[in-house]
Amino acid sequence: MNIRSSWLYVCISIILALAVFGLVIYNHSFVQAELPVNNFDLGYEQGFKDGCHQEQISRIESPGTIHYVDREVIKEVIVEKHIEFGEFTSLEQLRAWLAEDDTDEYIHLVAGNDGVCRQSDNYDCDDYAAQLQLRAAKSGFLMSVTIIEEQGKPHMINLACIGNNICYIEPQTDEVWFYCHRD
User: Fold this and answer.
1) What is the topology classification, in CATH, of domain 91-181?
2) pTM of this prediction?
């Protein structure tokens, strides 16, 4: 055997060894892909079946496939609930409601990239005013949101009518002050 043929033999052996090694790694990656993630081996169909048995879902829609679950409807009733909104009847009632409401104590936190939670710069006066208005509506009271000028800048607060009086409310502090009369 000359040097050329032995060198060729070594090269072919290395190429074959690399090919076999590549096939082993390739097959191993498929075995790894088939293993359950986080010990949950619930496929789409199994999760759907489990959700249906627990009555948490009635159907799942996905592209090209719609699954329906037949269930017996015992009685279907339409209920209309009219919410009657009213104004606060007195300044004391408004202050008592504000004392129970915790909008002024709400702090919106966001997690930074470093994992530390900080107060959000995006949750500001308009968010507090909208939240207070929504909570007043849930309690059955009329309350609006308005913009005033504070130190030369626009600032959003709430407005409530009490009899003939219109009062402003600072939603971040629960401060209430008389603004004007309606008439």
Assistant:
1) Beta Polymerase; domain 2 (3.30.460)
2) 0.52
